[in-house]
Amino acid sequence: MTHIRLFASLSMVLLASACAVVDLEYRFDDESTRLGDASLWDDWYDTIKRTNDEIISIEGCNEDESECDRTMLQISVLVNNGKDLELTQQLQLVNRYVN
């Protein structure tokens, strides 16, 4: 279960970074296209919140590795190793880590 959650979180981080250069995603800050608050979609909101919390933890690990638990340190190394790879290579890296 932990590996599935970890895979989902890492996939979200990688997909979010891959989509960051494209401005086609739904914008919660654009009133003209706003459907409602993100909190209306509980599962999605929880996923985004959890992912943002993990990003903060990973950034903290990058600043001070002594504050990281073993799992977060592994994730931090994985993200740092994959951040400059092509999307397909990033997915392969995450797949290798999870499997």
Summarize the structure in words.
- It is a single chain.
- By secondary structure, this protein is mostly helical.
- The protein has one domain (2-98).
- Helix content is 66%, strand content 0%.
- The chain has helices spanning 2-19, 42-63, 70-82, 87-98.
- Helix 1 crosses helix 2, helix 1 runs antiparallel to helix 4 (87-98) and helix 2 packs across helix 3.
- The model has no long low-confidence stretch (mean pLDDT 78).
Distinctive features:
4 helices; globular; 99 residues; mainly alpha
Summarize the structure.
66% of the residues lie in helices and 0% in strands. It is mostly helical and 99 residues long.
Separation, N- and C-terminal Cα atoms: 13 Å
- The helix/strand class is mainly alpha
Major β-sheet annotation: none
Rg of Cα set: 15 Å
| Binned strand content | under 5%
The low-pLDDT segments are: none
Number of individual domains: 1
**SSE succession:** HHHH
Number of strands: 0
Q: Which overall shape is indicated by the principal axes computed on the Cα atoms? A: globular
Please estimate the helix content: 55-70%
Mean pLDDT: 78
Number of helices: 4
Task: Give the SSE layout.
Blueprint: H1 2-19, H2 42-63, H3 70-82, H4 87-98
